[in-house]
Amino acid sequence: MGGGRRWRTLGSLGVLVLFSAPLLIVLPGSLREPGRPPPRTLELLPDPVVFSNYEHAVDLAGLGRATVNSLLVAAFAVPLSVLVASWAGFALVQLPRRLARVVIGAAVVPLIAPALVATSPIYALVYYVSFRQLPRDLWDACRLEGMSPLRTWRRVAMPLVRPVTAAVAALAFVLTWANFLDPLVYVYRRELFTVPLALRSLATLDPTNYPLLLAGAVIATAPVVAVFLIAQRWFLHEYRGPGWLGR
Known about the structure:
The chain is mostly helical. It has a single domain, classed as MetI-like fold (Orthogonal Bundle). 72% of the residues lie in helices and 0% in strands. Helix 3 crosses helix 13, helix 4 packs across helix 7 and helix 10 runs antiparallel to helix 13.
């Protein structure tokens, strides 16, 4: 188990380094003097270091208010995505497998399905696959104990797939946070802008001030990085060795 956890940790760190590489360009670029172009080579620390780009980005584009608006949207959208997806996945795993495959095909294959539900059916599929890995005897035991489906989902199923919940929540947060088209269509007042709209307005107001734009990008990226770091803790600490639940 120790070796498996070690490899999981190394793999996670490798993925983290890979996806954090763009920050080595964006972060130093955001600290350059206003108006200067991005560096042509890797620059770990510009000379001089200018922190005022962040203050100007917040003031010029209203990124502070936009960040609060995006967090409020995510506070409702992410729990709802997890709740509905876990319900759908749990309901699918209770069906006969042939019928479940038909329902999954109807939900995933048509390209119009994601537009109808305004989200991705992949979340429900991920939960279905996770719940399917649990022994079917577990559901039978819950029924013999007189547990309702809702109580079985809440007290038994969900605690056993916590890493999956962390992954779905992180993905839902990223999609909600980066959603540009829906706020563009429905939001007209500047004080209601979300982060993508604020970044767009920043690029429109000063399109050649690259350090300012990169400072805005860093501000917009920071919550996403924080969410993935929090979700990563669930993956690293939720390992179950051989024999859990009789396996």
